[in-house]
Amino acid sequence: MPFAYCRDPQSIEETSLGLIRSVLDSYALEPQLRPVAERVVHAGADFSLASLLRSSPEGVRRGVEALRRGGPLFCDVEMVRSGLSRPLTERLGLHPLAAIHDPEVRRRSEEALVTRAMAAVDLAADQGVRLYAFGNAPTALFRLLERAEAGAPVDFVCAFPVGFVGAAESKRALLASGLPCVVLSGPRGGSNLCAAACNALLRLAGEAPSP
Protein backbone atom coordinates (compact mmCIF):
# COMPACT_ATOMS: atom_id res chain seq x y z
CA MET A 1 0.00 0.00 0.00
CA PRO A 2 1.50 3.40 -0.95
CA PHE A 3 2.22 5.82 1.88
CA ALA A 4 1.01 9.42 1.75
CA TYR A 5 3.87 11.74 2.65
CA CYS A 6 5.51 14.92 1.42
CA ARG A 7 8.37 14.26 -1.00
CA ASP A 8 9.39 17.80 -1.90
CA PRO A 9 12.47 18.81 0.12
CA GLN A 10 11.78 22.54 -0.14
CA SER A 11 8.23 22.09 1.06
CA ILE A 12 9.40 19.89 3.94
CA GLU A 13 11.93 22.51 5.05
CA GLU A 14 9.51 25.41 4.73
CA THR A 15 6.80 23.57 6.67
CA SER A 16 9.25 22.57 9.39
CA LEU A 17 10.66 26.09 9.77
CA GLY A 18 7.15 27.57 9.82
CA LEU A 19 6.23 25.30 12.71
CA ILE A 20 9.49 26.07 14.52
CA ARG A 21 9.03 29.83 14.14
CA SER A 22 5.49 29.71 15.49
CA VAL A 23 6.66 27.85 18.60
CA LEU A 24 9.76 30.00 19.13
CA ASP A 25 7.51 33.07 19.29
CA SER A 26 6.77 32.01 22.88
CA TYR A 27 10.48 31.80 23.82
CA ALA A 28 12.40 34.67 25.39
CA LEU A 29 15.20 34.65 22.83
CA GLU A 30 17.66 37.41 22.13
CA PRO A 31 16.67 38.74 18.68
CA GLN A 32 20.21 38.20 17.35
CA LEU A 33 20.02 34.49 18.25
CA ARG A 34 16.64 33.84 16.64
CA PRO A 35 17.98 32.76 13.19
CA VAL A 36 20.52 30.47 14.85
CA ALA A 37 17.88 28.98 17.16
CA GLU A 38 15.61 28.17 14.23
CA ARG A 39 18.30 26.15 12.48
CA VAL A 40 19.61 24.43 15.61
CA VAL A 41 16.10 23.38 16.65
CA HIS A 42 15.49 22.18 13.09
CA ALA A 43 18.67 20.08 13.11
CA GLY A 44 17.96 18.54 16.50
CA ALA A 45 14.14 18.40 16.37
CA ASP A 46 14.32 19.68 19.95
CA PHE A 47 12.89 23.01 21.11
CA SER A 48 14.80 22.85 24.40
CA LEU A 49 17.98 23.63 22.48
CA ALA A 50 16.77 27.19 21.88
CA SER A 51 16.93 28.00 25.59
CA LEU A 52 20.58 26.85 25.75
CA LEU A 53 21.89 29.27 23.14
CA ARG A 54 24.12 32.07 24.37
CA SER A 55 26.36 34.64 22.71
CA SER A 56 28.89 37.27 23.58
CA PRO A 57 27.69 40.88 23.27
CA GLU A 58 26.88 41.41 19.58
CA GLY A 59 28.32 37.95 18.96
CA VAL A 60 26.11 37.22 15.97
CA ARG A 61 26.83 40.56 14.30
CA ARG A 62 30.56 40.22 14.83
CA GLY A 63 30.49 36.62 13.65
CA VAL A 64 28.65 37.55 10.47
CA GLU A 65 31.13 40.35 9.80
CA ALA A 66 34.05 37.96 10.32
CA LEU A 67 32.55 35.33 8.01
CA ARG A 68 32.03 37.95 5.29
CA ARG A 69 35.78 38.57 5.28
CA GLY A 70 36.35 34.97 4.18
CA GLY A 71 39.49 32.94 4.78
CA PRO A 72 40.14 29.62 6.54
CA LEU A 73 37.52 28.30 8.96
CA PHE A 74 38.80 25.74 11.48
CA CYS A 75 36.49 22.78 12.22
CA ASP A 76 37.49 20.50 15.08
CA VAL A 77 36.20 17.37 13.32
CA GLU A 78 35.44 16.34 9.76
CA MET A 79 31.70 16.02 10.51
CA VAL A 80 31.47 19.76 11.20
CA ARG A 81 33.34 20.60 8.01
CA SER A 82 31.24 18.27 5.85
CA GLY A 83 28.01 19.70 7.33
CA LEU A 84 28.72 23.25 6.19
CA SER A 85 26.92 24.57 3.12
CA ARG A 86 29.38 24.44 0.26
CA PRO A 87 27.55 27.04 -1.88
CA LEU A 88 27.59 29.48 1.04
CA THR A 89 31.22 28.93 2.00
CA GLU A 90 32.29 29.28 -1.62
CA ARG A 91 30.23 32.46 -2.09
CA LEU A 92 31.86 34.01 0.98
CA GLY A 93 35.38 32.90 0.12
CA LEU A 94 35.61 30.66 3.18
CA HIS A 95 37.82 27.57 3.30
CA PRO A 96 36.64 25.08 5.93
CA LEU A 97 39.43 22.83 7.18
CA ALA A 98 39.56 19.85 9.52
CA ALA A 99 43.12 18.79 10.32
CA ILE A 100 42.38 16.18 12.98
CA HIS A 101 43.82 13.42 10.76
CA ASP A 102 46.71 15.48 9.37
CA PRO A 103 50.11 13.75 9.87
CA GLU A 104 51.55 16.99 11.26
CA VAL A 105 48.78 17.10 13.84
CA ARG A 106 49.48 13.51 14.84
CA ARG A 107 53.18 14.31 15.19
CA ARG A 108 52.50 17.36 17.33
CA SER A 109 50.06 15.42 19.47
CA GLU A 110 52.55 12.63 20.16
CA GLU A 111 55.44 14.98 20.86
CA ALA A 112 53.50 17.31 23.18
CA LEU A 113 51.39 14.54 24.79
CA VAL A 114 48.14 16.37 24.05
CA THR A 115 44.98 15.34 22.23
CA ARG A 116 44.97 15.55 18.45
CA ALA A 117 42.15 18.09 18.73
CA MET A 118 44.45 20.33 20.78
CA ALA A 119 47.30 19.83 18.33
CA ALA A 120 44.97 20.74 15.45
CA VAL A 121 44.14 24.03 17.16
CA ASP A 122 47.85 24.73 17.69
CA LEU A 123 48.51 24.13 13.99
CA ALA A 124 45.61 26.39 12.98
CA ALA A 125 46.67 29.17 15.35
CA ASP A 126 50.25 28.94 14.08
CA GLN A 127 48.91 29.35 10.54
CA GLY A 128 46.96 32.47 11.47
CA VAL A 129 43.43 31.01 11.39
CA ARG A 130 40.96 33.38 13.07
CA LEU A 131 37.59 31.58 12.65
CA TYR A 132 36.77 28.46 14.68
CA ALA A 133 33.91 25.96 14.95
CA PHE A 134 33.79 23.24 17.62
CA GLY A 135 31.21 20.46 17.55
CA ASN A 136 33.04 17.77 19.44
CA ALA A 137 36.16 18.39 21.52
CA PRO A 138 36.18 20.48 24.73
CA THR A 139 39.97 20.09 24.91
CA ALA A 140 40.26 21.87 21.57
CA LEU A 141 38.16 24.81 22.79
CA PHE A 142 40.22 25.06 25.99
CA ARG A 143 43.38 25.06 23.86
CA LEU A 144 42.05 27.91 21.72
CA LEU A 145 41.35 29.92 24.86
CA GLU A 146 44.93 29.32 25.99
CA ARG A 147 46.27 30.40 22.61
CA ALA A 148 44.05 33.49 22.62
CA GLU A 149 45.33 34.47 26.08
CA ALA A 150 48.85 34.11 24.68
CA GLY A 151 48.03 36.56 21.88
CA ALA A 152 46.62 34.49 19.00
CA PRO A 153 44.02 36.57 17.14
CA VAL A 154 40.49 35.11 17.13
CA ASP A 155 37.68 36.79 15.19
CA PHE A 156 34.81 34.40 16.00
CA VAL A 157 34.04 31.06 17.65
CA CYS A 158 30.99 28.82 17.17
CA ALA A 159 31.17 26.54 20.23
CA PHE A 160 29.08 23.36 20.46
CA PRO A 161 31.48 20.81 22.02
CA VAL A 162 29.62 17.90 23.59
CA GLY A 163 30.22 15.68 26.59
CA PHE A 164 30.18 15.29 30.36
CA VAL A 165 33.86 16.15 30.92
CA GLY A 166 34.86 19.72 30.15
CA ALA A 167 32.20 20.66 27.60
CA ALA A 168 30.07 22.91 29.81
CA GLU A 169 33.17 24.33 31.50
CA SER A 170 34.91 25.15 28.22
CA LYS A 171 31.86 27.02 26.96
CA ARG A 172 31.50 28.99 30.17
CA ALA A 173 35.15 29.95 29.90
CA LEU A 174 34.63 31.07 26.31
CA LEU A 175 31.71 33.31 27.25
CA ALA A 176 33.81 34.80 30.06
CA SER A 177 36.78 35.39 27.75
CA GLY A 178 35.23 38.25 25.79
CA LEU A 179 35.88 36.57 22.44
CA PRO A 180 33.07 36.97 19.87
CA CYS A 181 31.11 33.73 20.02
CA VAL A 182 27.88 31.78 19.81
CA VAL A 183 27.58 28.92 22.31
CA LEU A 184 25.26 26.04 23.18
CA SER A 185 25.61 26.07 26.94
CA GLY A 186 25.84 22.97 29.12
CA PRO A 187 27.07 19.49 28.13
CA ARG A 188 24.92 19.20 25.02
CA GLY A 189 26.21 19.89 21.52
CA GLY A 190 27.53 17.89 18.61
CA SER A 191 28.77 18.24 15.07
CA ASN A 192 25.34 18.42 13.44
CA LEU A 193 24.17 21.21 15.75
CA CYS A 194 27.42 23.12 15.28
CA ALA A 195 27.11 22.86 11.50
CA ALA A 196 23.48 24.00 11.68
CA ALA A 197 24.45 27.07 13.72
CA CYS A 198 27.30 27.87 11.36
CA ASN A 199 25.03 27.54 8.35
CA ALA A 200 22.55 29.96 9.93
CA LEU A 201 25.37 32.47 10.35
CA LEU A 202 26.59 31.80 6.80
CA ARG A 203 23.09 32.58 5.49
CA LEU A 204 23.12 35.87 7.36
CA ALA A 205 26.60 36.63 6.05
CA GLY A 206 25.45 35.93 2.51
CA GLU A 207 22.69 38.52 2.75
CA ALA A 208 23.28 42.13 1.77
CA PRO A 209 24.72 44.10 4.72
CA SER A 210 22.38 46.54 6.44
CA PRO A 211 22.93 50.14 5.32
User: In the residues, how many domains can be counted?
Assistant: 1
CATH class reads: Alpha Beta
Helix/strand order = HHEHEHHEHHEHEHEH
Give the strand order, joined by hyphens, for the main sheet: 1-6-5-4-2-3
- Per the CATH scheme, the topology name is Rossmann fold
Number of strands: 6
Helix share, percent: 40-55%
Averaged pLDDT, please? Answer: 94
**What percentage of amino acids are in beta strands?**
5-15%
Radius of gyration: 17 Å
- First-last Cα distance: 55 Å
The CATH architecture is 3-Layer(aba) Sandwich
Largest sheet: 6 strands, mixed
Number of helices: 10
Q: Name the shape in a single word.
A: globular
Q: What's the CATH H-level superfamily name?
A: Cobalamin biosynthesis CobH/CbiC, precorrin-8X methylmutase
**pLDDT under 50 segments (min length 5)?**
none
Structural class: alpha/beta
Pathway: Cofactor biosynthesis; adenosylcobalamin biosynthesis
Pfam family, one: CbiC
Domain Cobalamin biosynthesis precorrin-8X methylmutase CobH/CbiC: 12-203
Keywords: Cobalamin biosynthesis, Isomerase
